[in-house]
Amino acid sequence: MGILFTGNLSPMASGFFRKIDQNHKIVVCGKSGIKDFGNLSVTPYDYNIDEAEFKNIFKTYSFKTVIYISNTIDGAIKAFDELENLENTLYLCRQNKVTNFIYITDNDFEEGTHENNSNSSRFILQQACESLCRNSSKEYGINLTLVRVPYIYNTEMNVKPHLFSQLGIWVNAAVLEKKIAFPGNPDDEVDFLWDEDLGILLDRILDDPPKGYLEMNIAGRNGMTYHQLSEMIRSHVADIEVSYIHKRIAIPQYAKGPEARQKYGWFPVGSLDEQLPGMIASCRSQYKKRKSFLFGANTKVKDVLSVSIELIFFFALTTYLDYWTADNAQIGFLDFRLIFVVVMGVLRGLDIGMLAAAAACIGYVFSATVELQWQIVFYNVQNWLPFAAYFLAGSVSGYTSDKSNDAIRFLKQEQEVLEQKYIFLSELYMKALENKDAFNSQIIGYKNSYGRIYEVTKKLESTIPEQIFYEAVQVLEDVLENCYVAIYSVKEDSDYARLNVCSKALHTVLQKSVRISDYPEMMDRLNADKTWINTKCLPDYPAYAIAITHNKKIAGLICLQYAEDRQMNLDFSNRFKIVSGLIKNSLIRAIERREQAECGTMIPNTRILRKEHFQKVLEVKRQMKEKEISEYLLIRLFNTGRKLTELSDTVSKMVRDNDIIGLGEDEQVYLILSQTNSGYLSVIAERLQKNQIQFELVHS
């Protein structure tokens, strides 16, 4: 399963990702303090959410779950673009059919954790983010889990200070600067959650993602006050200065909820009292070098200082050697300045080699003017040879060194390219294995196809169309492994298709009526009695559709609203045709039997079903309501002296063809409004009152 981690990843260390099942395809996109993921099955990217490359990641990988870590965690006050980034990520999830979304935010948003901050911009921002998550789950059917957490910490202190967790920043300040500044007051209660504990919980959520929308408050086992935390740090780092800002803004607290323990059997194990000494020791060893002479200097300044020291030292050494060996007949012929130029060129390259040559020339001039006048040194052509030799030696040795370094750099770049190609080929290999497994499952499914067809046929054996609708959704979801099924009915010469039944995931997404003329390309295929497949990825079109024809006219539609990439193939198309064909035949057979048996199922000269048949239809409607694949309203009509034929004619003019009129067990007339909720009640009530028909809502 593909999983994307994005957002604020700085508090998470490699141990967090190590707790996630490595059989998943894990992609990390965002600024992380992890230098190297080692042997973890993690593909890192460093893109911002508003960049085009971030959008391309969704196209490259088929994510089932996206985990977004809020910029507000760890008590961050400045959470720029948080709402925009969250909205953009949710939009990409909808576009790419991501089914599960986990939003991790801090728990200071909970009621009772603020003091007079309900109007603060940060509070309003968090409220808007959580409302966006709720609406996305409700309107678009995303399985969304909102996890509120306290301060998060990790025990790996081998990253840059600005990528520490908030606790890591305080520990770093205590070790290096001997002072800590806490927000809030000394008695404010806070809590700390180990990142590996959070990783264990997320792994369990990934194994069993909740349906719909779920909120949970997560607590660590380190509830304490700021004063207690400062004393805990003081017990390991002496003589630290502690100050408090005395503002209760953005302070994650201890807020424990029962959801994680009850649903996933999770409880935290990370103890700050046991882990803090190791964090402090790691921080001390990591930054021991920073206390040296060059502490705080950047890399360029260090390089300049290092080169300058080398030049001055070797130049002084060669000058001394030339002076010391001037009267020595055995080694007096050696030019130590020339050796100095060659050494600097080899060690530091062309630029430093030429600089060393210039320094050697200056040294030669000063040494020569001791015995000769400077005019003779410059005007005598023979004295130019040392200058030429110095610059020639510096340029040749420096060029050779630069050429060698460039070759090494190019080899490293080539190695990086080869590593990327290897990763790409490895992903292709894994994709080939997935295709192999898919083909194996197709072969196994083919071997069992006769049994599946018999099972489907038995389920669709009914003379009640409503019962067939109910079974059809479950059959399609089971056989096709797709939970985006919708079945419509189309009245003769009508431009609208009425939704009869749909999958639970589409229950709040699809409109109850659809204008079929808005889908000309699909209708051209269906009118030609062919299966529609959205190979052009046309927006708002269903992925698959097939027509239910009766008397050579379209009477209904069977649609798969969405399909995954792996389902856009010939094998899946054939399965859809076969199962839809069985459903289509069963529906047509049931409709024809109903037409032939109308005299037995309906009161003569009316649309009113007899008691026995009406109770069967009502029971099917109740089952569909329980499965959340359809909805209905049941209304009792009070007959005040009218004949049933007159009442039937009057009501039939006010309702749709898929609405049902029947006699109840109490001999009263009832009306079932299919695919209707209580919001539509005012419309039908107005129509009934205009025709002086009294009614009572029985079920909604």
From TrEMBL:
Source species, domain of life: Bacteria
Protein name stated in the entry: Nucleoside-diphosphate-sugar epimerase
Protein source organism: Anaerobium acetethylicum
Phylogenetic placement of the source organism: Bacteria, Bacillati, Bacillota, Clostridia, Lachnospirales
